[in-house]
Design brief:
Layout lengths: L16 H9 L4 H9 L14 H10 L3 H4 L5 E2 L10 E2 L10
Antiparallel strand pairs: 1-2
C-alpha cells in the first residue's frame, strides 16, 4: 500500500507574489525559490472581506465565507453582551462552519 502524500499549506500575511518573485529573481529569497519551484502558488486569488488574518484563515480552513463561519475580525463580540466584552477571533470554537 502506498504511503499517503504529505501536504503543507504555507500562508504569509501581506506577501505580494510579485514582490516575492522579484526578490527570488534577485537571489534574496533562496528558500522561497524552492517553495515556489516545488509547490503551487496562488498568483491571483479571491480573498474574503475583511482582508485580515482571522477571517482569511477561517475561510481557508473551512471553505466558507465570513458571513457563514462568523469569524469577522481579530476580536469578536457576542450580541447582547457588554460592548467591552470581546474575545479573540483566532479561536476555532467560534467558527460556525465545519
Amino acid at each position: 500500500m502506498k504511503a499517503p502524500q504529505k501536504i503543507a499549506v504555507l500562508g504569509f500575511d501581506c506577501a505580494l507574489t510579485g514582490l516575492v518573485r522579484k526578490h527570488i529573481d534577485e537571489g534574496i529569497c533562496p528558500n522561497f525559490k524552492k517553495v515556489f519551484g516545488n509547490g503551487t502558488v496562488a498568483e491571483n486569488c479571491l480573498v474574503p472581506f475583511p482582508t485580515i488574518t482571522p477571517p482569511n484563515w477561517a475561510s481557508i480552513s473551512t471553505g466558507a465565507w465570513p458571513g457563514t463561519h462568523r469569524v469577522t475580525d481579530f476580536n469578536l463580540h457576542n450580541p447582547g453582551e457588554a460592548l467591552h466584552e470581546v474575545f479573540p477571533g483566532f479561536s476555532s470554537t467560534e467558527c460556525s462552519s465545519e
